[in-house]
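## Example pair
The file below holds two records. Each record gives the amino-acid sequence first, followed by its structure token line.
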Amino acid sequence: MNNTLKQTIIGFDMDGVIIDLGPKKIELARERGFALSPRDTQSDLLKQVLPETVRREIQKILYNEPEITLSAKIMPGVTEALETLTQLGIPFFLISRRKKYLPAIELLIEQELYPKYFDESNTFFVESAKEKNSTAAELDVTHFLDDELDVIEILDSVPNKILFDPVDAFPEWNATARIKHWDELLRNIL
């Protein structure tokens, strides 16, 4: 392994990066009379297209109702990328603002990511974006992959911030790296 890879430590957000909640958001919005495109499901844009009460109701269902939570799927390429990182010995951490720890772990188990890739030693649930930044700093994270612009902007401690944008919500974004698929992450880091 070269010196660059030895110094690489990756942080991942969970929802919108590892877990694809887009189809569930579309379904739940449709049940409430709102038509969403895949692009609309991106967290920053969802705030603009749904009334706050509806958005909060959908979030509550997504994160608190086990049958909905456990039916979410992982993003294409996640398993292959995590396997490659594991084989290369590149450390990685899950740092999520998801408030419900147990359903999140159950979802990772359901998707065969926990404990194979994530476990108690590399999985952190925090309350805020600022806490996500301080946790990344404590772990010496050098690269962080998140799907929310407000989080990307707060990650002062991380030298390499990567906006994960699989639905092309921010094609004009050029303030930091922007990728649409997990394969691009590997190409940018390896």
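Second record, same layout:
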Amino acid sequence: MINPAMFSSESTEWETPQKLFDSLNAEFHFTLDVCATAANAKCQHFYSKEENAFRQRWRGVCWMNPPYGRTITPRWVQKAYWSSQEGALVVCLLPARTDTIWWHKYVMKGEIRFLKGRVKFTGGLYSAPFPSAVVIFREKWWEKC
């Protein structure tokens, strides 16, 4: 059975599974969770809704599991990409929406790791009804030459 909330606007926020985060954190050593709450932050330093990550400069090694939605995700992906061009390393957990403009405009400029199976977000009863990918945005120094 599929969780109906995953198809509705009931919630756009889904907490990263700890095992997935721990695996990526062992590789990247995150310093900032760019979209979190005090209850679900994966890093000691994080931006909450009140701090408005879009108004902040992202620095260091950032983790991003953005709110999911048609208009929300593209804005987060754009910010992640541009932050990487300013020197941050941003690792994102994203819905694999390979048919969207934002995927081709930004995601294709990063390193893409498709996840096998469907993510079961923390607190969810069922796995997501969509595939996911981990996308890594890094500054590409050679493009600035």
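Notes on the second record: Confidence is low (pLDDT under 50) at residues 1-9. The longest strand covers residues 89-95.
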